[in-house]
Amino acid sequence: KAGVTQTPRYLIKTRGQQVTLSCSPISGHRSVSWYQQTPGQGLQFLFEYFSETQRNKGNFPGRFSGRQFSNSRSEMNVSTLELGDSALYLCASSLGLRDRSYEQYFGPGTRLTVT
Amino acid sequence: QQPVQSPQAVILREGEDAVINCSSSKALYSVHWYRQKHGEAPVFLMILLKGGEQKGHEKISASFNEKKQQSSLYLTASQLSYSGTYFCGTAGGAGNQFYFGTGTSLTVIP
User: Fold this and answer.
1) Which candidate in A51, B42, B88, B108 could, as Cys together with B34 as Cys, close a disulfide (CB 3.0–4.6 Å)?
2) What count of CB pairs under 8 Å joins A to B?
3) Which of A60, A112, A104, A81 is nearest to A14 (CA)?
C-alpha cells in the first residue's frame, strides 16, 4: 500500500506571495489533517477534512485554507505569506472514524521557507 | 488546550527505562502516542481509548488515567532505535479537534 505523499517537498517563497501544498492520502482513507511544525511551537493542528468537508479547524488566521477533493486528495493554501509561516507542513491521513480509534499516517512533509 | 508533556528531554543509556507523561487540562476521550525521528515524519505507536485497556507495543507500553486526564508512556530496556521525539495526541471527544503535546526529546546512548 502506498503511503501518504506530499508535494512539493521543499519550497522557497517571498513574503506576500501565496502557496499551495498538496497531499495524497493512503488509498481508502477519507480523512486528511494538516499540521504546522516549528521548533518553537511543535505540532500545531491546522484543519481536518473528511469526505470533502472541513470537520475541524485550528487557531490559524484565515490566510490558511484548505480543501479536499472527491478522491480524498487535499490541498492547503496560504495567502499573503509572512516570515513566520516558515515551517514544515505535514499532512496525515486516516480512516477518519469519529471515535478517534484510528491512527494517523503522516506524509514526509513540505518544508516551506519564506524570505 | 495543547497537552503538556514531561520531561521535555531525557538522555538514557541503553537498557535503562523511561517514563514520558502527557497531561491535559481538558477531559480526554482518547490518547495517541507518536514518535518522530530527526528529519522524518511522526510514526504512530499506540492509541488508548476512554474506558479501554492499556495497550503495549513490544517494550513500549502506555496507560491512560481518565480521571486525572493524564497518560504515560513507558519505555523499558531502551534501545538506540528508541531515540527521537515523542508526542502524545489527544481528542476531547468523538470527532473533536486533535491536539498534539509539547513533545519529549529522548536520546539513548550506548
Assistant:
1) B42
2) 65
3) A81
Residues in B touching A25 (Cβ below 8 Å): none
**Chain A residues 67-106 within an 8 A CB cutoff of chain B:** 90, 92, 98-106
Model confidence over B30-86: pLDDT tens digits? 899 999 999 899 999 988 887 665 555 667 889 888 888 899 999 999 999 999 999
| CA-based nearest residue to A76, from A36, A17, A115, A30 | A36
The three grid cell numbers given for residue A40, joined into one nine-digit string: 518553537
Residue type, B101: G
* Closest-approach residue (CA) in chain B for A36: B100
Shortest distance, CA B95 to any CA of chain A (angstroms): 4
